[in-house]
Automatic annotation (TrEMBL):
Residues 436-457 are annotated as: Disordered. It comes from the Bacteria. Residues 448-457 have a biased composition (Polar residues). The lineage of its organism: Bacteria, Bacillati, Actinomycetota, Actinomycetes, Streptosporangiales. InterPro entries: Kinase-like_dom_sf (IPR011009), WD40/YVTN_repeat-like_dom_sf (IPR015943), WD40_repeat_dom_sf (IPR036322). This is Protein kinase domain-containing protein.
């Protein structure tokens, strides 16, 4: 969005202009709003074109042909005045970023978002083509992402580029635009861009294997050999609604939505105390609120001290917190209150053993957080009883401290409902000490409001001295600050550096290097300088584990689990994921765990059926446990044993089954010894 120019018209019909959205040789487009109506994109024929009978007639024809709705995934023409001295049309404009804006600001979409994007936009094209219309100018800027879907904007409202047009873009088909087959080529080029961040079809090699053959067929130079839009929908899974966006994409969309909502008037345009209705255009100052990108601020509610954000900032003394890592044994006594006992099912998602092997920590979205003496089968602590939703767990390699991600709710200015974000906390079992770690955060906006970033992952260095945190970036946030390093001796965040993408997983190789997994690459960083020292490309998913002390990483590429030696860049072993490769498009790798003691790697993945009614959908879980030396899948035929996850111990494996039960398993025979809880 751009601020209005002094010479821009203030209105079109009942719509007040709030900001500029863009322009082309024929029209200018504005964000508009009217009382009691949803926001719209208003295309106004440029004054020089409005007096040209040929251009005016063509604009009128295109608007009249596109009026009404052909698909929930195509923005409809809602209103127009084609007899006005300067003709205009109002097009549906739900709140959310366009694909070009999102990818260029934030990087390629998460892999799990590509199939929903592909299906929704293909359904939109099928609706247009069935109505005997073509989009004609499909590009990333004409794909809008809202909280629940993707839709095509400006269908057929802009003249298509001719085959010899010198201004044709990389998204235009080689034969020129304007025909349905040209839309199919442009659709594929847009998918390549969404998957790679590379403009046009050149990003094809970054498209996931499950989609690549479909996209490749749409990029054929001979238009007659491309599939139709209806065929495309069938190839992608049918006419049912596309799957929801993955969780990591939703905050990005919400951030853009909030920035636009902030400049919209109240529905009734009610007067403010000063007497002026809040029907204000987006000035340069207001626009700056949506573009602020800075670093270093902390946020949130200190759940463990009971202080609000304001109280913490005003009353907290200079940090004098003792070092988190202590040398007490984990069962010598807990500093947390004695629990009353566990009631009901465990419903665990994550598990981790303490370094001395005596304590098993469990976490889950429906479990919260708990600590167990697994040998006795006894609950010893629930360190944060008011934390209902907890995620990734990891113990420090020394002492009895562990980190966990958990969901917090924060009240934000201007919003009636609380917003949810994920933060990290470290807990020390003997002392009962608990600290929050917020990772890199942007500075407050000029109006004092705060754009939050969720922490996505944490990991300890081999010595326990350093804790690395990865944060989920958003449109408003400077992506130079997506990884933070905390000194566990002082509990201070000592440095942040640039990941160019949010990291789903981090792993130390030694005390000086940490690896981060992005959408399609793994980057090894020097934590002192923040410089990249090594990159592994063509990675298929964000899941990754490191093998500290051996300079090795394990990741997934091209449908295989790859055990990779960073010294010479060669694979030490490759393990097939044939069932995952053949799975539906919405399949996701859920977890990857390495057991150095037994030489095992455990991988789980899930997919959810796509019935139109959400209550009819079913989530399926699959698991593999490979012996790195022999390549044998030890879970073949017995996947449910560890379908949800696993933690490894020299004496036992804590396997989480599909129902969230925690089974204690003999690592040699894979027989269940006991069940926790």
């Amino acid at each position: 969005m751009l601020p209005l120019h002094p010479h821009d018209p203030p209105t079109a019909g009942p719509y007040r202009f709030l900001a500029r959205l863009g322009e082309d040789p024929w029209t200018r487009s504005y964000l508009g709003a009217a009382p009691g109506r949803p926001p719209v994109r208003i295309r106004v024929l440029r004054s020089g074109q409005a007096t040209d009978p040929t251009t005016r007639s063509a604009f009128t024809h295109r608007v009249e042909n596109r009026s009404g709705s052909v698909s929930p995934n195509v923005a409809a023409v809602l209103d127009s005045d084609l007899d006005s001295p300067v003709p205009w049309a109002a097009i549906e404009r739900p709140l959310g970023p366009d694909l070009g804006e999102l990818v260029r600001a934030h990087g390629p979409l998460p892999t799990a978002a590509l199939h929903p994007l592909a299906l929704a936009t293909a359904q939109g094209l099928a609706g247009l083509h069935t109505a005997e219309h073509a989009h004609g100018t499909l590009a990333p800027e004409s794909v809008l992402l809202t909280g629940d879907r993707a839709l095509l904007t400006d269908p057929g409202l802009i003249p298509a580029k001719e085959v010899h047009d010198t201004e044709a873009s990389v998204f235009d088909p080689p034969e020129g635009g304007g025909a349905p087959a040209g839309d199919i080529f442009a659709w594929a080029a847009v998918l390549c861009f969404a998957a790679s961040g590379v403009e046009g079809p050149d990003g094809l090699d970054r498209v996931p294997l499950q989609l690549r053959s479909v996209v490749d067929a749409c990029l054929r130079e001979n238009a007659n050999l491309r599939p139709s839009a209806v065929d495309l929908v069938s190839m992608l899974g049918g006419t049912a609604a596309a799957a929801p966006w993955p969780p990591e994409l939703i905050p990005v969309i919400e951030a853009s939505t909030a920035s636009v909502r902030g400049v919209l008037p109240a529905e009734s345009a009610a007067p403010t105390p000063g007497g002026q209705g809040r029907f204000l255009g987006l000035t340069a100052g207001a626009l700056a609120l949506t573009l602020v990108a800075a670093t270093g601020a902390a946020w949130g509610y200190n759940r463990f001290t009971g202080l609000s954000e304001t109280e913490t900032a005003a009353e907290e003394p200079e940090p004098t917190t003792p070092a988190m890592i202590t040398d007490a044994a984990c069962l010598e006594g807990s500093g947390f209150p004695e629990p009353a006992g566990w009631e009901g099912e465990l419903l665990a998602d994550e598990a981790a053993f303490s370094p001395d092997g005596d304590v098993l920590a469990l976490a889950g979205l429906e479990h919260g957080l708990s600590l167990w003496d697994w040998r006795a089968g006894e609950l010893i602590a629930t360190p944060a009883e008011d934390v209902d939703r907890a995620g990734k767990l990891e113990f420090s390699p020394v002492g009895c401290a562990f980190s966990v991600l958990w969901e917090d709710e924060v009240e934000e200015a201007g919003q009636e409902e609380q917003s949810s974000y994920w933060v990290a906390s470290t807990f020390d079992i003997p002392s009962g000490q608990a600290l929050e770690h917020l990772g890199p955060q942007p500075a407050p906006r000029p109006d004092g409001s705060q754009q939050r970033m969720s922490v996505t992952t944490t990991t300890f260095s081999p010595s326990g001295r350093w804790l690395a945190l990865g944060a989920r970036t958003s449109i408003e946030v400077n992506r130079d600050d997506s990884i933070a390093i905390v000194d566990m001796e002082t509990n201070e965040q000592v440095r942040t550096f640039n990941d160019m993408d949010y990291s789903s997983h981090l792993g130390f190789l030694d005390d000086t290097r940490v690896a981060s997994s992005g959408l399609d690459s793994i980057i090894v960083w020097d934590i002192e300088s923040g410089q990249r020292v090594q990159t592994i490309r063509n990675v298929s998913t964000r899941e990754m584990v490191t093998v500290p002390g051996h300079n090795q990483v394990i990741y997934i590429a091209n449908g295989e689990v790859v055990w990779h030696d960073l010294e010479d860049g060669s694979p030490l072993g490759v393990f097939p994921l044939d069932d995952y490769t053949a799975a539906p498009f919405n399949a996701n790798i859920r977890s990857m765990t390495h057991d150095p003691g037994h030489g095992l790697v455990h991988v789980t993945w899930t997919y959810t059926s796509d019935e139109e009614d959400l209550e009819d959908r079913t989530t399926y879980r699959r698991a593999h446990l490979w012996d790195l030396e022999t390549g044998e899948d030890l879970l073949a035929g017995n996947e449910d044993l560890m379908a949800q996850g696993a933690a490894f111990h020299p004496e036992v494996i804590a396997g989480i089954d599909a129902d969230g039960n925690v089974n204690l398993i003999d690592p040699d025979t894979l027989e269940i010894i006991d069940t926790l809880g």
